[in-house]
Amino acid sequence: MRFFSLLWIMLGWMTASGQLPQKLSAAMDVFNADAQLKYALSSLYVIDAETGKVIFDQNSTTGMATASTEKIVTAATAFDLLGAGYKYKTRFGIVNTSHGKCLYVDPSGDPSLASWRWEETKDMVFLAQLKAALKTAGIKQLAAVMVYTGKWGDETIPDGWIWQDLGNYYGAGAQAINWRENQFDLILRSGSAPGSPVTVVTTTPYLYDYRITSLATAGEKNSGDNSILYYPSMGGKTGVLRGTIPAGQSGFVVSGSIYDPANQFVKTIIKSLKGTVSFSSDQVRTTGKEATAVKWIYTHSSPELSKIIYWFLRKSVNLYGEALLKTVGLLQKGTATTDNGIETIQEHWKARGVDPDELHLYDGSGLSPQNRITTRAQVTVLRYARQQSWFPDYYESFPLYNDMKMKSGTINRVKGFSGYQKAKDGKDYIFSFLVNNYSGSQYALIRKMYKVLDELK
Questions:
Q1: How many CA atoms does the CB half-sphere of 194 hold within 13 Å?
Q2: What residues of the chain score a pLDDT lower than 50?
Q3: Lower Cβ count inside 10 Å, N or C end of the chain?
Q4: Which residues neighbour 41 within 8 Å (Cβ) at sequence distance 6 or greater?
Q5: Half-sphere exposure (CA, 13 Å, Cβ side) for 223?
Q6: Distance between CA atoms of 137 and 296, rounded to whole angstroms?
């Protein structure tokens, strides 16, 4: 009897497993016929996680705009090349120059410097440690702060990012020095009636040598945030807020990207050291030439890479993606540029079975609408990750949507989900589902995508 019971269980499992392609096909037929998809392109690729067998394939070799689902590729590359325990290290020392002694900074592109996400990285904690190190070294007067940028250059924003995104918090690019995730909060007050002016109350933190002019107006009381922050053009020092926020607000918060993180970093340091160390100049001095005779006094370490990637995937922090992309480029090519990072990613995955033509990248975060990746490439990366020692940290970083472990992605008319799912019968699946150029409501589309993905449960 036991033999027959096991036989029936196996036959039931094989039947259920065999029906999945048909179920997915039927679900996708309904999805593709929906009016929201009339002018859209959709791709769904599903494999058996253990065997790699293809369960379903629709347009898996067609390059698609990915939005933030691209982050799964950047994160897996960083884990593989840098290691889960990798830490960014920013070194501080004293050098003699023709202007006198300077505080010399050897940056690492650490995207977590002064981040509020960890106690040990918060700005006040870091500044207190630097202050203590200068006191221990007996430093009471300095000429300036000198930042070495030789390995990072002055590139900030990747090609392909759109002007409308750059001034907002999610449009912060990565530099040699990143400070407080290159983000600030703009506190606003709106009039009581729609159409009335919106005024700037303050910023957190205080912005040095930079101001925001508000051209925004009040919208309806429950209209939400429909404002956009714009960078100044031609090297100006004034950003512009346009659009609307709800009427009747006294402390409405809009988050923007810091225009000049290195300047913010240096002037914050100088202000925090007032009364302990005096500076002859508060101007940022950068050098492309690495100093040799440095008296090192302090090294600031970031959290481990696994912790950075946790927030990178969970909260989709674009800055982290650009920093990681440049970091792997620095490791493999010698300089931290976006192009070097892209080449590194393409070469890394080519050696693991992904054609570079399936990875047409412009950044490391997916913010550029010009990125094109195939769902087959994404699934190949996900399956490779599943076989690595760092996979538990990678998997834990994935958000939970629709009771499924998957990374989402959203930009204009682009929606995607890529990740892992264990079915009720114990089978593990890996999938990537991307939709480009849909019509109508994003939220309506998401519900329809979930309905398809429910077949994997």
A1: 6
A2: 3-4, 6-11, 13
A3: N
A4: 59, 62, 64, 435, 436, 437
A5: 19
A6: 9
